[in-house]
Amino acid sequence: MNRIEVENLNVHFDDAQILKDVNIKIPKNTVTSLIGPSGCGKSTFIRTINRMNDLISGFKKEGHIYLDGQEIYDPSVDVVELRKKVGMVFQKPNPFPKSVFDNVAYGLKVHGITDKNIVEERVRESLKSAALWEEVKEKLEKSALGLSGGQQQRLCIARTIAIEPEVILMDEPCSALDPISTTKIEDLIHKLKKEYTIVIVTHNMQQATRVSKFTSFFLHGEIVESARTERLFLEPKDKRTEDYITGRFG
Amino acid sequence: MEKRYPRILFRKRLKDLRKEVNDIGKLTLKAHKDSVNIFADYDENMVEDVLATSKKIDEMVFYLERKCISIIAAEQPVAKDLRFIEACIKVGSHLKRIGHLAANIAQASDYIKDETIPKKPQEDLKHMADFVQMMLSKGIHAFLDQNMEMARELKQDDDKVDDLFDQALEHITRSMFKDKESISYLVHLLFVARYMERVGDRAVSIADKTIFMITCEKP
Ligand SMILES: Nc1ncnc2c1ncn2[C@@H]1O[C@H](COP(=O)(O)OP(=O)(O)OP(=O)(O)O)[C@@H](O)[C@H]1O
Ligand SMILES: [Mg+2]
């Protein structure tokens, strides 16, 4: 079953067309990687999936994006509800200047969950799911800014999963991390895909081959090729994909 | 269009790999050719030569594989670059085996050198030797030039060499029945025919690897 279906998506920022006729189906509980050279529109694409571009002046979109069959740009859709279902993790870990606990609890409060016991339970479970619990259980009241970069990124993932989304969008989540922290995030992705649908933008092609079942290659705002990850990296069908992944341009 | 990054060093390393396979291929062809010549026209020094060449091939293949692994580790190749490197490893190991078979042929000649080989088996083996040499040359060049047509041809050649082997087998056993005394050396003739047929098999495997490298198809 597909969690997300994108049909003929075109995106403009003012006069500039950023995405051209993008079509993609993202199956439930799998990891899908998006690769492509800088500026090809990967971030714009995933930001369109949780309507983070809405506030950017000059943003225009045509086409459809369905989440579980529901058009997410339909006027009846509550954007706050949508973002609860579609969480996002950014390239740079961006914890709030609050305690570790409050970072995770914050989203719960926003979504009206205030019962102390439930909040504590959820915070603990989320930190466990994000493979961070053991490292922070003694310092939940300490500032999140005192954590290492890799820990901060896992904290942001905990914050995202605390509100139990269906989809997690990750925009280069490991690009600011060292190899060990990267491995931890990748292991975490493996674990999370059982319950979540994950879309990850990465510049690291080995990472795409390690974590994802499907990969789409973006170029100049278009999807050139989507395929099983294995197939795309062993046997790309399009010459442009081949040239990009073998490092002939980038 | 994007800026082009040709990955100059990486391209050069791939080119070097091809050259190494080319060199090993040449040595293998020579080893096989010499071994069948010894068979027709015994020369003790040549036997030593073939054994030495086979050893040399082993060593070159060892370094070829090491180089392939270090390129994979350093460059993380994908797509056709990865398929090419994988094929180099496999082709290298086929060439190594062919070197061993050539050594086997050369050594078997020692048992036959003083005998008069009956006419028919002699012709069969001569025929097989030429045919297999041609297959080997085709296999190596199909790989080096990424020539699909040539690689596909080898499939048919494989059936032909099997027929030649069956024929040799029949003629050799017939000679054995005629003269029981001759069995002790004719059996080595049989081995030689078997070795040659295996060289042909390896040539076909090289072609199969080439087809996979180019098309990703199951050959
Ligand atoms: N807010 C904006 N206003 C106008 N143009 C924008 C805006 N955001 C992005 N763009 C343009 O859209 C194009 C795609 O940008 P985007 O950030 O989606 O690329 P990307 O594939 O994520 O690149 P990178 O790999 O470098 O992160 C770029 O040409 C960029 O300049
Ligand atoms: Mg981006």
Q: What report would you give on this structure?
A:
The complex is a heterodimer of chains A (250) and B (219). Chain A has 250 residues and is α/β, with parallel strands linked by helices. Chain A has helices spanning 42-49, 79-85, 100-110, 116-129, 133-136, 149-162, 179-192, 205-211, 229-234, 239-245, and strands spanning 2-13, 16-27, 31-35, 59-67, 70-71, 86-89, 167-171, 197-201, 214-219, 222-228. In chain A, the strands form two sheets. Chain A has a six-stranded mixed beta sheet, sandwiched between helices. The mean pLDDT of chain A is 94. By secondary structure, chain B is mostly helical. Chain B has a single domain, classed as Phosphate transport system protein phou homolog 2, domain 2 (Methane Monooxygenase Hydroxylase, Chain G, domain 1, Up-down Bundle), CATH 1.20.58. In chain B, 86% of the residues lie in helices and 0% in strands. The longest helix of chain B has 34 residues, at 79-112. The two termini of chain B are 36 Å apart. At the A-B interface, helix 8 of A face helix 3 of B.
How would you sum up the major sheet of chain B? Answer: none
Proper CATH architecture of chain B: Up-down Bundle
Give the count of structural domains of chain B.
1
The CATH H-level homologous superfamily of chain B:
Phosphate transport system protein phou homolog 2, domain 2
**Cα-atom Rg of chain A, whole angstroms?**
18 Å
Reading the helices and strands of chain A in chain order gives EEEHEEHEHHHHEHEHEEHH
Please identify the oligomeric state: heterodimer
